[in-house]
Amino acid sequence: MCKEVYAGVNNSVMSTVGKSTNIVWYECKIGKHERQQLLKQKGCVVWITGLSGSGKSTVACALSRELYARGYLAYVLDGDNLRHGLNRDLSFSAEDRSENIRRVGEVAKLFADAGVICIASLISPYRSERDACRALVPDSFIEVFMDMPLELCEARDPKGLYKLARAGKIKGFTGIDDPYEAPLNCELVIQLKNGECSSPSSMAEQIIMYLDEKGFLKA
Ligand SMILES: Nc1ncnc2c1ncn2[C@@H]1O[C@H](COP(=O)(O)OS(=O)(=O)O)[C@@H](OP(=O)(O)O)[C@H]1O
Ligand SMILES: Nc1ncnc2c1ncn2[C@@H]1O[C@H](COP(=O)(O)OP(=O)(O)O)[C@@H](O)[C@H]1O
User: What superkingdom heads the lineage (predicted)?
Assistant: First the structure.
């Protein structure tokens, strides 16, 4: 929340934002537009949501690779990886997951402002928090739902976490004893076709086609 308080010296607008008082936004001469011209692309956020094991990290990296091969700059913000650093203080409680999503949304916004195609891949189980991230970059948020059945994710179980959750050794595991709220109005849904999972590169291609159609792959 930003509350304008008063005009300080040089008529600069002093604000209170969250717990910060008396702060002033500093505008740089080189902005998003200039950076986009340099990179010949539009900064945006591709937000990949879905259950653990649904293929978020795989498609995020495939997308980053395919974009790189075509000369576009992308950067992956992966939930698991960010929990090794920026978000290492957060657990999997509802409150901490919300804070996790909020922080990743803010970081993604910075990357988009830098002109980069930011690919955020995290479970992000709550609709309202994903919507809040969308509201940070309203015209450049592409929500991608990895709509894979729980049974498939659980059968994959690459880290053995579902097994532990079923055995009661992990409490509050998404899809088992913690909620996942599927998107209602997302830009892209990636699903099984005739019961088969497409290859990561064809999923990446589906996203690239969308980015191209919407004009993100030109300045
Ligand atoms: N309780 C519980 N529930 C879900 N996931 C768990 C949990 N504990 C650990 N993990 C591992 O953490 C990864 C998810 O982290 P995220 O930051 O993406 O989660 S969230 O968006 O805050 O819900 C997730 O990685 P992915 O499998 O890549 O999704 C899991 O490996
Ligand atoms: N399109 C795909 N086809 C087949 N296997 C896949 C595909 N995408 C992911 N996988 C496999 O599924 C497992 C989970 O993928 P991962 O990307 O780690 O999911 P998430 O990041 O959602 O947890 C991995 O073993 C991965 O190799």
Answer: Eukaryota
* Ligand 2 contacts CB of residue 58 (under 6 A): yes
3 and 95 housed in the same domain:
no
- Crossing angle between the packed helical segments 127-136 and 94-113, to the nearest 10 degrees: 20
> What is the per-residue pLDDT across 128-164, written as a single tens digit (0 to 9) for each?
999 999 999 999 999 999 999 999 999 999 999 999 9
Catalytic residues: 124
Please indicate, yes or no, if residue 219 is contained in any of the structural domains.
no
Does the residue 75 lie in any domain? yes
Contacts of residue 188, defined as CB under 8 A and 6 or more positions apart, other chains included, come to 142, 143, 144, 145, 206, 207, 210
Domain holding 23, by residue range, is 1-30
pTM above 0.95, yes or no: yes
In ligand 1, which atom is closest to the CA atom of 92?
A: 1
Burial class (CB in 10 A: 0-12, 13-18, 19+), 209: exposed
* 170, 79: one domain: yes
